Amino acid sequence: MAKFKSFLGAAGVAALASLAMSTAVLADDSEDRKFGYSITLTGTSDYIFRGMSLNNQLPAFQPFIEFTYGIAYVNFWGSNISGQGYEPFEMDISAGIRPVTGPVSWDLGVLYYTYPANSLGWSATDYVEFKVSASITPVTNLTLGVTGYWTPDQGTNYGETETVEGNISYALPKFAIFDPTIGGTLGYSNADRAGFFLGEGDYTYWNVGLKLAVDKYFMDFRYWDTNISKNVGNDFNNSTADSRFVFSAGVNLP
């Protein structure tokens, strides 16, 4: 069974590579291939990763910078982190392409999660994940998307995990100085080793919220929850997977 799942994982990576190459070829040859960059600085009341608090329910600062060339990109994202053995901070590196085929916008990439200063030493808890994402705008202001993540087995660093997320967002009419958008996410994650990720083998998570933008600035009000049992006396689940409201604010540069 393990060999079969490994084969499926390898096949998934091959399919990802094939799809990436084919969609890149399908990209418009007249595309303006210029270098670009963007920076986002965000402060949040809690660092939530797939429904779980990774900062012990404490505020976090999360800088992001991305460099692009045509449909290709590489970006760096960071956050302070605590309470899960990965502290004091996380830095993620992502690279991939974002081609467009007809009405579908794609994001095909690889993510490298790093925890450079953790107590176990450099790269002791790092791991790699692959991503395929597609989104479509069937009617004006409404965007629907789905993203699949595959994390291959990386020994003690991370067990094989499959995650699927569905997203929906709708841009509302301008209100005073604000450009409001409502949206939500429904996700399911399944780990090959039961109890590997934060004590859970498979679980469902979701959020719903409102984002208010004013020029380059934004605020986000979001409610998160999971289906993980919050048994009385289970401090682990109570502290990481319980329902919560999360507030974030930031600015997009330049």
What does this structure look like?
It is built from two helices and 15 strands. The strands form two sheets. A twelve-stranded antiparallel barrel has the order 1-4-5-6-8-9-10-11-12-13-14-15. A two-stranded antiparallel ribbon has the order 2-3. The chain is globular and about 45 Å long. The chain has 254 residues and is mainly β. The protein has one domain: Porin (Beta Barrel), CATH 2.40.160. A hairpin with a 2-residue loop joins strand 9 and strand 10.
Tags for this model:
two-stranded antiparallel sheet; 53% strand; 15 strands; Porin; twelve-stranded antiparallel barrel; 254 residues; mainly beta; single chain
Layout: helices, strands, pairs:
Layout: H1 2-26, E1 35-44, E2 48-49, E3 52-53, E4 60-69, E5 72-80, E6 89-97, E7 100-101, E8 104-114, E9 127-139, E10 142-151, E11 161-171, E12 179-191, E13 202-214, E14 217-226, H2 235-240, E15 244-253
Antiparallel strand pairs: 1-4, 1-15, 2-3, 4-5, 5-6, 6-8, 7-8, 8-9, 9-10, 10-11, 11-12, 12-13, 13-14, 14-15
Low-pLDDT segments: 1-14, 23-30, 232-237
pLDDT averaged over residues: 85
Which structural class best describes the helix and strand composition?
mainly beta
Architecture, CATH level 2? Answer: Beta Barrel
Total separate domains = 1
What oligomeric arrangement do these chains adopt? single chain
Number of strands: 15
β-strand amount: over 45%
**Biggest sheet, in brief?**
12 strands, antiparallel, barrel
> Helical amount among residues, as a percent range?
10-25%
